[in-house]
């Protein structure tokens, strides 16, 4: 871990250390953890705007980083370090982690991490960027696990730094009531592991896993966090196979998107002001992971903002538009191009092949009109005019009022189908079949209204695309679809499927207070599937679950307590 490292090598042991790490120890040496940093101490990628646009900026920024890190290692080891040694860097950013995830792999880094604590919003979205980047580049991602809540770090000691209340031997080095809930810490393990992380690195090392309870002198024992770790490791030993996360939708962004609403300067990549492309991404992600935008406005608590439930489940990955990595889209039934994505002619053969094989490709007019060949493939001609509307409809009969929005006017061919209209029958979403697949074109610029919030047709389109997309449907016990009750994910295993269920409700924990548990927030669920299910077993306790079959469908009922996680493993015939 390089956060505080200041190595002191001489002319003899420096070169010898480097030769060992790149020679006989190369397969054992995984790399350098850069916690909350892009590299070792003092490494810089440059200041200010480094190119005329974000793509040029990120290219120069990345080259500067690789060169600066190589120079730093050469000074540390007192020998010339190969530029390829950058593949051993493991940056684990908190701010800007999603803005740079793909770039780090593009520079050659084998493993990239992200940090999350209880004040950093939206773990599922951050995982989607890390996982998508790792899959697109054939590499790995990890979680740099921080048990922090604000300035409350979870190191266990009998002498609190802040002289407040009882000695803090029970919870943290600040005070007995400070920090995250143990339930949050436990779920973080399960969420990262089942989402595909290759490792979890403790920011606090082993320090928060053990305590010497007090007051007085007593034997060392596992801390509450240590017991959560022990619980998780026992679960991993029991589980036959965690499988591969099933993520049927990929968001395709510009490799220079730079998007991250969590940053130090309120600018993308600390340089660029938020623009209409950032707003498009924000609103798209708010829909994809609803109710995250609602939760952000609630009082801060570990179990609220950082773990939004998400009505569609954790079914998304994020890719970028590097032409050399374009084939990655073929792994996803649905690809949604967004923001300032650049789909030039180098992309056309890949997109056409993807469509012919049955893929669904979604794109907004602002991105599509940059390439005439793409417009031709869709089957539209631009009129170079827009108009303002205040209503929209699906059938031309039932009209829904909304905030005023602009529509790009186009001529469409007979092969295109209009999915949604404005009040005067002007198309706002059209679908064009190509081969066995289809392109869906949205004609509201960036798919936002004039208040810079999502057009109401955007969640309608997401509902349309996700309908029957997963092999499981999860309902509340009363038969209603999920709204905000549960965070869930689905993995494909070697002999079936796995469904992870996370109840992020019912635990109210302030930064300096006792966790209050609302037992009424337990959730009873009905998991339904048409798969030929042979058995269903829950693995956190563990126990066998009863399968009810009717009309070709299988149903399993399960209860998830507040702050708990349940993992159901389905074997199929």
3D architecture notes:
By secondary structure, this protein is α/β, with parallel strands linked by helices. The protein folds into 3 domains: 13-242, no CATH class; 249-466, 3-Layer(aba) Sandwich (Rossmann fold), CATH 3.40.50; 473-572, Immunoglobulin-like (Sandwich), CATH 2.60.40. It has helices spanning 13-22, 54-77, 97-106, 123-137, 182-194, 224-238, 276-288, 292-295, 348-356, 365-368, 372-378, 457-466; strands at residues 32-35, 89-93, 111-116, 140-145, 199-202, 210-211, 221-222, 244-245, 249-253, 316-320, 334-337, 360-364, 380-393, 399-412, 416-422, 427-434, 437-442, 473-476, 487-493, 496-502, 507-508, 516-517, 523-529, 533-538, 543-544, 548-550, 553-560, 565-572. The mean pLDDT is 93.
Uncertain residue segments: none
Number of H/I helices: 12
Structural class: alpha/beta
The dominant shape is globular
Global mean pLDDT: 93
Hey, roughly how much beta strand do the residues contain?
25-35%
Question: In the residues, how many domains can be counted?
Answer: 3
Number of strands: 28
User: Strand order, biggest sheet?
Assistant: 10-9-11-12-17-16-15-13-14
Could you give a short account of the major beta sheet?
A: 9 strands, mixed
**Percent helix range:** 10-25%
Q: How far apart, in Å, are the first and last alpha carbons?
A: 46 Å
Query: Radius of gyration from the CA trace?
Result: 25 Å
Keywords:
573 residues; nine-stranded mixed sheet; 12 helices; Immunoglobulin-like; alpha/beta; six-stranded antiparallel sheet; Rossmann fold
């Amino acid at each position: 871990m390089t956060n505080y490292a200041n190595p002191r090598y001489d002319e003899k042991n420096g070169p010898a250390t480097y030769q060992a790490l790149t020679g006989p120890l190369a397969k054992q040496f995984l790399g350098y953890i850069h916690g909350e940093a892009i590299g070792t101490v003092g490494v810089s990628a440059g200041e200010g705007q480094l190119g005329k646009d974000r793509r040029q900026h990120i290219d120069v920024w990345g080259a500067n980083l690789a060169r600066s890190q190589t120079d730093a290692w050469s000074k540390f080891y007192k020998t010339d370090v190969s530029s390829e040694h950058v593949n051993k860097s493991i940056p684990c950013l908190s701010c800007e982690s999603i803005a740079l995830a793909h770039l780090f792999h593009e520079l050659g880094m084998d493993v990239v991490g992200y940090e999350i604590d209880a004040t950093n919003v939206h773990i599922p979205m951050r995982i989607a960027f890390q996982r998508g980047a790792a899959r697109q580049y054939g590499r790995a991602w990890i979680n740099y696990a921080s048990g922090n809540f604000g300035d409350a770090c979870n190191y266990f000691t009998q002498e609190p730094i802040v002289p407040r209340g009882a000695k803090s031997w029970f919870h943290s080095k600040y005070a007995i009531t400070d920090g995250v809930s143990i339930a949050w810490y436990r779920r973080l393990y399960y969420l990262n592991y089942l989402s595909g992380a290759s490792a979890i690195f403790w920011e606090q090392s082993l320090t928060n896993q053990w305590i010497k309870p007090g007051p007085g002198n007593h034997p060392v024992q596992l801390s509450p966090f240590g017991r959560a770790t022990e619980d998780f490791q026992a679960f991993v030993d029991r589980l036959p196979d965690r499988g591969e996360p099933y993520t049927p939708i990929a968001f395709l962004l510009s490799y220079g998107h730079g998007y991250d609403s969590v940053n130090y300067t309120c600018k993308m990549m600390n340089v660029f002001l938020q623009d209409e492309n950032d707003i498009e991404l924000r609103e798209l992600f708010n829909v994809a992971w609803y109710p995250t935008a609602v939760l952000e406005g609630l009082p801060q608590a570990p179990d609220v903002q950082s773990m939004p439930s998400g009505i569609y489940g954790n079914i998304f990955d994020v890719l970028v538009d590097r032409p050399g990595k374009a084939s990655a889209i073929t792994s996803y039934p649905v690809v949604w191009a967004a923001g300032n994505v650049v789909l030039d002619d180098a992309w056309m053969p890949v997109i056409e092949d993807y469509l012919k094989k049955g893929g669904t490709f979604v794109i907004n007019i602002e991105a599509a009109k940059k390439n005439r060949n793409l417009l031709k493939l869709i089957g539209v001609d631009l009129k170079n005019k827009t108009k303002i509307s205040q209503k929209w409809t699906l059938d031309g009969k039932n009209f829904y009022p909304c905030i005023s929005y602009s529509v790009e006017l186009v001529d469409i061919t007979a092969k295109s189908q209009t999915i949604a209209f404005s009040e005067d029958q002007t198309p706002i979403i059209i679908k064009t079949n190509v081969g066995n697949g289809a392109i869906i074109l949205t004609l509201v610029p960036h798919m936002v209204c004039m208040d810079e919030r999502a057009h109401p047709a955007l969640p309608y389109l997401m509902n349309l695309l996700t309908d029957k997309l997963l092999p499981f449907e999860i309902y509340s016990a009363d038969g209603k679809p999920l709204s905000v009750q549960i965070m869930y994910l689905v993995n494909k295993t070697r002999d079936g499927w796995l469904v992870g269920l996370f109840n992020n409700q019912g635990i109210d924990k302030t930064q300096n207070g006792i966790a209050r548990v609302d037992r009424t927030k337990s959730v009873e669920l009905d998991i339904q599937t048409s798969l030929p299910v042979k058995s269903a077993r829950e693995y956190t306790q563990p126990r066998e679950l009863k399968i009810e079959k009717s009309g070709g469908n299988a149903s399993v009922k399960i209860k998830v307590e507040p702050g708990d996680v349940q993992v159901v493993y389905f074997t199929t015939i």
